[in-house]
Amino acid sequence: SRATLAPLLSKELGLVRFAELSAPEIHNLVRGLYPWPGAYTFFHGKRVKLLRSMVAAEASRGNPGDFWVEGDRLFVACAKGTALEMLELQLEGKRPMLPREFENGIKGQAPQFSPESA
C-alpha cells in the first residue's frame, strides 16, 4: 500500500549538465543510470559515457565542464564549486578506458565537456 511508481527511464535523462548539478548530484546520476541508460556528455561533438566516478575532495578549477588531469586522475568542474573525479569513461566508438588513456587519446584538444553535441 505504500509502494509508489517510479518514472520510466529514458536516454535523455542521462545527459549530464555540469553547470546545473553539483558533483554529488552527478555522481549519484552516474551510479543510478549505470548500466542503462547511462550518464553521458559530449567532447568535441562525440558522446562520452561516464561509467564510474567519485566526488573529489579538491575544489573546482575553472568553469563547469572544464576538466584537468593530475597524475593518473581526471577531474571535472561542476556547479557550486565542486569537482568530480572520473574513474572510467568511454568515448563514442571506443572501449571503456581509464582517465590516463582518455587523456592520451585527446592530446591537443581543449579540455571542456559540453552538454550539446555541436
What key phrases describe this protein's structure?
118 residues; 5 strands; alpha+beta
Can you describe what's shown?
This protein is 14% helix and 28% strand. The chain is of the alpha+beta class. The protein has a five-stranded antiparallel β-sheet with strand order 1-2-5-4-3. A hairpin with a 2-residue loop joins β3 and β4. The longest helix is centred in the first third of the chain and has 10 residues, at 23-32. The chain is globular.
Brief rundown of the structure:
With 118 residues, the protein is an alpha+beta fold.
Secondary structure: number of strands: 5
* Fraction of residues in helix: 10-25%
Shape: globular
Radius of gyration: 14 Å
Q: Compute the average pLDDT.
A: 91
List SSEs in N-to-C order.
HEEEEEH
Number of separate helices = 2
End-to-end gap: 47 Å
Largest sheet: 5 strands, antiparallel
Main sheet: which strands, in order across?
Answer: 1-2-5-4-3
Weakly predicted, low-confidence segments? none
Indicate the proportion of strand residues: 25-35%
The helix/strand class is alpha+beta
Map the helices and strands:
Elements: H1 23-32, E1 39-43, E2 46-55, E3 67-70, E4 73-77, E5 83-91, H2 99-105
Antiparallel strand pairs: 1-2, 2-5, 3-4, 4-5
